[in-house]
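Appendix B. Worked example

We walk through a single record from start to finish. Start with the input: the chain for tRNA-(Ms[2]io[6]A)-hydroxylase, Flavobacterium plantiphilum, length 193.
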Amino acid sequence: MLGLKLATDPRWVNIVESNIEEILTDHAWCEQKAASNAISLITQNSEKEELVTALMLIAQEEIEHFKMVHDLIKERGLTFGRERKDSYVNELFKFMKKDGSRNDALCERLLFSAMIEARSCERFKVLSENIQDPELAKFYRDLMISEAGHYTTFLGFAKKYADHVNVDKRWKEWIDYETSIITNYGKNETVHG
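Next comes the structure step. The output line below is what the pipeline stores for this chain.
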């Protein structure tokens, strides 16, 4: 369904399990950034009522996920660390086209957002199916379902608002680009690392 060409090696979960505090801290910050991204899109496109309404729900859900992960960190007696740099997201950002109409720029930002959600969804699936901790397995299964919904929302709005962009063709380019960079990741105990 996600269209990703390369699946995460399930052995990545072994790396994650070696430092649960790190994955949870990184995950919390990913959720905070996802909420901020939705709010930023609202700010830049406030005249698009349907988009604003959908993104408000996503922002609320992402901030609730942030709280859930933060609560999990506290419940386990772990330390919520400082924000992490996300090299994967930064590489995706470089691929965004910066020209075209305002709606074309929105379309690119929505595709960028959809790609992040797609990979996060896939990573949560791998965690839910392979992590030994039953609480975390259920936690990541529930979040996987949510991320899939965000992915389809972003992709759907990209199709709705594209002026001069063949979204299916451009999404294929995003998939191909993501495939070319994802081989550099899956080696660290971070959501995208």
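Two observations about the output. Helices lie at 12-17, 20-44, 49-75, 87-95, 102-130, 134-161, 167-182. The mean pLDDT is 94.
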